[in-house]
Amino acid sequence: MIKVENLTKRYARNVAVDGISFEVEKGQIVGFLGPNGAGKTTTMRVLTCFLPPTEGKAEVAGYDVIREPIEVKRRIGYLPETPPLYPEMEVSEYMEFVGKLKGVPRVDLARRVEEACERCHCEDVKAKLISRLSKGYRQRVGLAAAILHNPDVLILDEPTSALDPEQRRETLHLIKELGKEHTIILSTHVLPEVEQTCEKVIIINRGKLVATDTMENLNLRLRGAELVSVEVEGRNGALSHDAVKQKLETVDGVSRVTFKENRNNRLVFTVESAQGRPVRADLARAVVQSDWNLIELHSMGLSLEEIFLQLMASDKAAAGGAK
Amino acid sequence: MNNILILCRKELKSYFASPIAYGLMAFFALVCGYFFYAATAIFVMRSTDMMMMGRGMPMDVNEWVVRPVMMNVSVIGLFIIPMITMRLFAEEKKTGTIELLATSPIRDLEIITGKWLAAVILFLCILLISALDLSILFLYGKPEWRPILISYLGLLLQGSCLLAIGTFISNTTRNQIIAGVGTFAICLMLWVLDWVAAYSTTATGKVLAYLSVMGHFESFAKGVLDTKDVVYYASVIFFGLFLTARSMESLRWRA
Ligand SMILES: Nc1ncnc2c1ncn2[C@@H]1O[C@H](COP(=O)(O)OP(=O)(O)OP(=O)(O)O)[C@@H](O)[C@H]1O
Ligand SMILES: [Mg+2]
Fold first, then answer.
1. Whole-angstrom Cα distance, residue B187 to residue B197?
2. Which range, of A144-158, A163-177, B184-198, averages the lowest pLDDT?
3. Contacting residues of B for A103, CB less than 8 Å apart
4. Orientation angle between helical segments A91-101 and B2-17, nearest 10 degrees
5. What are the residue boundaries of the structural domains of chain A, listed by start?
6. Alpha-carbon gap, residue A202 to A34, rounded angstroms
7. Minimum CA–CA partner of B97 in chain A
8. Which residues pair with A281 in a beta bridge?
9. B27 to chain A nearest CA, in Å?
10. What is the ipTM of this complex?
11. Given A50, A102, A145, which is nearest B105 (Cβ)?
12. CA distance B160 to A156
C-alpha cells in the first residue's frame, strides 16, 4: 500500500530524512518511532504530498507522490502534528468544509460528518466555535476530519498527544478498529501505545532507518535478557541489602543484581539473567532457604521502551564508531 | 470550478467573521463620503457662480462629480487592497491550515483562484458603498448612468489586478504584516510610476505608461470602454494568478 524507496529530504541546511526505505502492506497498523527531530513528520509530509522528496521515491496505493499527487491525496487522510483548524468556524461547519474539499458527495456529507464525529467522540461540541475548544477536543476534531472521506490510508502524526487517558484509550481502540479496513501509519512518543495497537514498527533516528520489523520479531530479537523484580523482607528485623544481593548473585544464570529501594524495610531488587535462562524458580528458592520472606517476584519483560532505548544507544555507538 | 467556489465561500465567511471586512467598509464609507461631499460642494458652488454670471450652459455632473470621486476611489483602493490580501496565504501558513489545503485533492491554481475571487467579491462589496453616495445624484439630477457603470467596471478590474498581486505576495511569506506592507509598497510604486509616465514623453515613458496599472483606469473614469484596457487588466490578473501558482510550486521544492 505504501512503498518508500531511498527517500531523502534535505532542507536548506540540514538533512531531515536520509535514504530510508520501507513498505507497508494493506491493512497494517504501523508505529513510526524516533526521538525528537528524527524526521517522522518530514517523512509523513512527503507521503501526503505536502513536501516533495529531494531524492528517492514514495508511492501510496500505487501512485507516485510526485507524478500523481491528486490521486495520492484522494486516498489519504492526514492528521498533522497541529490539527489544521480554522478558529473562526464552528466544528460542524469545519467538517462540512473538509468534506467538500475532499470530494465527499453532497448527498453523503451530512451522514459522514455525523459518523466521523461520533467515532471520534466530538458530537457534543459540534455547535461550538473551534477557537473555544480545548486542545484535546481540537485533536479529536482533527482526527474526525482525517477519517471523514473514508480514505484507504491514514497518516496520523502524534494523534494522541493532547488527549486525556480515557480518550487516549478510546482513540487507540478506534485506530485498531479502523485498522481492519485501513492502512495506518501513526507516530507517537508513547511506546506502550505502539505495543498495544501496532503490528509493525519503524524506528528512525536522525533521518536514518534504525529498525523496521513486526512487534514480535523485534521482541524476539532484543529480548536477550529477562528482567525480574524481587521484593524481600527480613523475618525478624531489618535486613542488610548487601547480604541479599550477594545471595541472589550466587543463583545460577543471574548476570546482574541491582538494589532499587527500601520500602518500609522491604528491599526491592532488579535481577537480570543471561539469555534463555529462566531463573525465577531458583531465585524464590534462594530467598526462602535463607529464611527471608519473599513478598513479590515478577518478570518485567523488556518493554518496547527498553528496546527503543537500546536501539538508540547502539545507533549512537555505531555513529560514534564511524567517526 | 466547484473547488474554487468551496474555497471562495470559506474565505468570504472568514472575512465576515472577523472585523476586517466591517472595518474596511467603515473606513471606505467615511473617506469616500468625504470626497463625494467635497466634489459636490465644489460643483454646487461653481454652478451657482456660473448662473450668477449669466451663462446658461449647465455643468456636467458626470464630469465634475462622478469622475473626481471615481479617481479618488481608485486611490483609496491602494490602501484597502493590501489589507484584504495580506492574510490570504500568510495566515494559513502561520497557523498550519495550509497543510489541510495542500494535502486535499485540489489543484494549487484552484486554491489561489478561490481565494482571489473571495478578495474580489469583498472589494466589490466595499466599492458598492460608494454607489450609495452616487445614488444621491440621481435623486436631485439626471447624471448619465452608463459612464458610471463603466467606471465601476474599471475600478473592479484595476482592483482585481492589484488583488492578484497581493495574493502573490501573501503566498511568499508567513507573516501577514510583511505581506501587507509589501503589497502596499508595490501598489504605491505602481501609482508613482503612473505620475512619472504622465510627465515623460520618451519611449521608456510610453512603456511605463502602458505597464502602469492606474494609467489604464483613466479611460474607464471618462466613461470610455476600451478593449485594449480590458485586455490589459485581464492579462495582468491571469499572469498574477499563474505566477502565484508557480511560486507555490517552487516554494514547496525549496522548503
Ligand atoms: N521547515 C523546515 N525547515 C528546515 N528544517 C526543518 C523544517 N522542518 C523540520 N526541519 C528539521 O528536520 C529534522 C526532522 O524534523 P521532523 O519535524 O521531521 O522531526 P520529528 O521526528 O517529527 O520530531 P518530533 O518528534 O519532535 O515531532 C529536524 O532536524 C528539524 O529541525
Ligand atoms: Mg514530528
1. 15
2. B184-198
3. 105
4. 160
5. 2-220, 224-299
6. 8
7. A84
8. none
9. 23
10. 0.89
11. A102
12. 39
Average pLDDT over residues B10-36: 92
Tell whether B100 is within 8 A of chain A (Cβ).
Answer: yes
More confident residue, A27 or A225: A27
Cell reading at A167: 480518550
Distances in whole angstroms, Cα of residue A112 to Cα of each of A143, A144, A184, B231: 13, 10, 20, 45
User: Any idea where the domains of chain B sit in the sequence?
Assistant: 2-254
The Cβ-side half-sphere exposure at B188, using a 13 Å CA radius, reads 8
Nearest ligand to the CA atom of A81 = 2
Which residues line the pocket of ligand 1, CB cutoff 6 A? A 11, 14, 16, 34, 36-42; B 255
| A2-220, CATH topology level | Rossmann fold (3.40.50)
Report residue A244 as a C-alpha cell: 541479599
| 3-class state of residue A26 by DSSP | coil
User: Cell 501573501 belongs to which residue?
Assistant: B170
For testing contact with chain A, the best of B1, B92, B100 (most A CBs within 10 A): B100
Q: What is the CATH number of domain A224-299?
A: 3.30.70.1340
Q: Which residues of B touch A87 (CB under 8 A)?
A: 95
Note the pLDDT of residue A68.
93
Measured over the CA atoms of residue B61, residue B66, residue B71 and residue B76, the dihedral's sign is positive
Q: Which long-range contacts (CB under 8 A, 24 or more apart) does B242-245 make?
A: B242/B109, B243/B168, B244/B112, B244/B164, B244/B167, B244/B168, B244/B171, B245/B108, B245/B109, B245/B112
Task: Check if B1 contacts A (Cβ < 8 Å).
Answer: no
